[in-house]
Design a protein that fits this description.
The complex is a heterodimer of chains A (135) and B (416).
Chain A (H helix, E strand, L loop, with lengths): L6 H8 L12 E7 L4 E10 L2 E10 L2 H14 L4 H6 L2 H8 L8 H4 L1 H11 L16
Antiparallel strand pairs in A: 1-2, 2-3
Helix pairs in contact in A: 1-2, 2-4
Chain B lengths: L12 H6 L7 E2 L2 E2 L1 E2 L10 H14 L9 H20 L8 E4 L2 H16 L5 E5 L8 H10 L2 E5 L12 H4 L4 E7 L11 H10 L3 E5 L11 H4 L3 E5 L10 E5 L1 H6 L10 E4 L4 E3 L13 H17 L1 H20 L4 E4 L9 E6 L4 H10 L2 E2 L1 E3 L4 H6 L5 E5 L6 H18 L2
Parallel strand pairs in B: 3-15, 5-6, 5-7, 7-8, 8-9
Antiparallel strand pairs in B: 1-2, 4-10, 9-10, 11-12, 13-14, 14-17, 16-17
Helix pairs in contact in B: 2-10, 3-10, 4-5, 11-14
Classes of the chains: A alpha+beta (135), B alpha/beta (416).
The complex binds pyridoxal-5'-phosphate (PLP).
Chain lengths: 135, 416
């Protein structure tokens, strides 16, 4: 049971990095995970095309909160182009644990929120979150 | 454990468990503990074999072939209908319409009865504890018609505010649609009383029986409602089939739902006339194997006896509530055990129910986590999500002990 919630995940969950909101964000976006009722908001401040500040806020399970916290560490200092290139695998690598088919939406809620914010909800196309359902 | 709950001697659970092949399965190297029965139940051998036998021996379409196989298939399918009608105390097989599930039964009513009977300014009365399938069809209907949806409130115990019912009912109330048993709180609602009072103002009464028909005796004549919908998959039967019972005079007066084969009497290039009940509401080739499996499920449950199922589940839920109460940090939602069926929703400290469910899964324990398709109720309880253990007659107190042990492990990992 313990391997699912390795110390790095619990650490990010208990002490989320960059938690909160920004007063004057250049991008701010909120998404929900209808499956479990999780809510997540990500604010970005961007200067010269580079992320100079990032905050996330919301409520949710350890997987969604820890992955969002890790994601904020990834985007700090990155250009918007670089932010856009962060993908599902980057998140899964950061979590470092096998994420089951049913929890993938929790793990990717932060990324979804970030990308929908950066691309704008209209132009952003959700990545294929489906994994192979094996037996 | 100082828990004094007497086990009813009436069910031989060890023997029953052998009827369910899946219960021998391991998950993460642990014997499966399946506590997600409110979502769907497991299936006994007899149900699985009845469908297998149909496909191997008499697979054919129903109601159309003149050949032997079609006759046998039609008989198998229609006999199931008869057993289901008998199981719920219907006056006639004609009152039992096969649907895909509870959801389809309720939507059928919204699109047929609702479409021709609900008018602008009238009211549809629901409760605050409805499943989305008994909310969304009525909200959509109300929007189409300019009608208003109102709700019987839920008190802090998780019971309906029956004291407010007479205020909510009036000549403007055309329909009252209520769940017989909440899939979150476990509350069993006084549907017969609601039906009596609703009929007194001329309203029609629909019962969402998705959680009741599988778990305790339901007799539609005693209940006094006008329509009642349930799903096979929650009562030992296959997915993809359910039943809608309706009062015959109302069904006769209703327009059909979908158009197509089987539901017609005569079709010309100008139009069509409708088949008799119940086929008027069954367009197209139905789930034949599923219908046959549904009948086998009803036979299986009848063999055990629904009174016994209910008594045993009350024992399990009493035990579960006592045990969960003994865990520090556990909050239980819903009323005392005597007022509910075999469902317990709870939270443990600030552990998100999804994390809890994932951890328990590691131990081979299946529970559900989330809003359980009743988002407004979650809001009413002031929680984003809950964990839910739901029982059936094949569960045991040992399984509940394993659930509780799993909660302690989760608390340790999250250091509460
Ligand atoms: C109270 C209640 N109503 C309706 C439903 C919907 O059943 P189904 O998904 O089989 O249509 C369920 C189960 O999910 C339920 O618990």
């Amino acid at each position: 049971m313990e391997d699912l919630y390795r110390e790095n995940i619990l650490d990010h969950f208990r002490n989320p990095r960059n938690f909160g909101t920004l007063e004057h964000p250049d991008f701010s976006h909120e998404e929900h995970n209808p499956l479990c009722g999780d809510k997540l908001r990500i604010d970005l401040q961007v200067d010269d095309d580079r992320v100079t500040a990032v905050r996330f806020s919301g409520k949710g399970c350890a997987i969604s909160q820890a992955s969002a916290s890790m994601l904020t560490e990834m985007v700090e200092g990155k250009t918007l182009e670089e932010v856009k290139s962060i993908d599902k695998q980057d998140i899964l690598d950061a979590l470092g644990i096998p994420i089951s088919y049913v929890r993938i939406k929790c793990a990717l809620l932060g990324l979804k929120t970030l990308k929908a914010g950066v691309y704008g909800v209209q132009t952003w196309v959700e990545e294929d979150n489906e994994q192979d359902i094996g037996w | 454990m100082a828990i004094e709950i007497l086990k009813p001697a009436t069910l031989n659970v060890e023997a029953i468990r052998l009827d369910f092949p899946i219960l021998a399965r391991k998950v993460n190297d642990q014997p499966l503990v399946y506590l997600d029965n409110a979502a769907t139940s497991q299936k006994p051998d007899s149900v699985i074999q009845s469908m297998d036998f149909y496909y191997r021996n008499y697979n054919a379409n129903v109601h159309r072939g003149i050949h032997r196989l079609s006759e046998e298939a039609t008989l198998g399918y229609e006999r199931s209908r008869a057993r289901i009608a008998n199981f719920i105390g219907a006056r006639s097989n004609k009152e039992v319409i096969f649907t895909r599930n509870t959801t389809e039964g309720l939507n059928l009513l919204a699109y047929t009865w609702g479409e021709s009977n609900i008018r602008q300014g009238e009211e549809i009365l629901l409760t605050e504890m409805e499943h989305h399938s008994n909310l969304v069809p009525w909200q959509r209907l109300a929007k189409r018609k300019g009608a208003r949806v109102r709700y019987i409130p839920v008190d802090d115990q998780g019971c309906l505010r029956m004291d407010l019912l007479d205020e909510l009912l009036g000549p403007q109330t055309r329909l009252v649609s209520v769940t017989h048993m909440s899939n979150v709180l476990g509350t069993i609602n006084p549907v017969a009383e609601i039906a009596t009072r609703a009929h007194a103002v001329g309203a029609v009464v629909i019962v969402d029986a998705a959680q009741s028909v599988p778990h305790f005796p339901v007799n539609v004549r005693e209940l006094g409602a006008d329509f009642l919908a349930f799903s096979s998959h929650k009562m030992c039967g296959p997915t993809g089939i359910g039943a809608l019972w309706g009062r015959r005079d109302l069904l006769e007066a209703m327009e059909p739902f979908m158009g197509g084969g089987d539901m017609i009497r005569e079709v010309t290039y100008e139009g069509a006339t409708w088949n008799d009940l119940p086929w008027k509401f069954e367009a197209g080739t139905p789930g034949i194997a599923e219908g046959i499996g549904f009948g086998a499920a009803v036979d299986y449950l009848s063999g055990i006896g629904m009174e016994k199922v209910h008594a045993y589940e009350q024992y399990l839920v009493s035990y579960a509530i006592e045990m969960l109460r003994s865990v520090p940090g556990v909050v239980i939602y819903g009323p005392e055990a005597a007022l509910r069926g075999g469902v317990v929703a709870f939270n443990v400290d600030a552990i998100h129910p999804h994390d809890l469910a994932s951890m328990l899964d590691r131990e081979g324990i299946a529970i559900r986590a989330g809003h359980h398709c009743a988002m407004p109720l979650a809001g009413r309880l002031n929680v984003a999500a809950t964990a839910r253990a739901s029982f059936y007659f094949y569960n045991t107190t040992e399984e509940i002990d394993r659930l509780v042990a799993g909660l302690y492990t989760a608390k340790k990992v999250f250091k509460f």
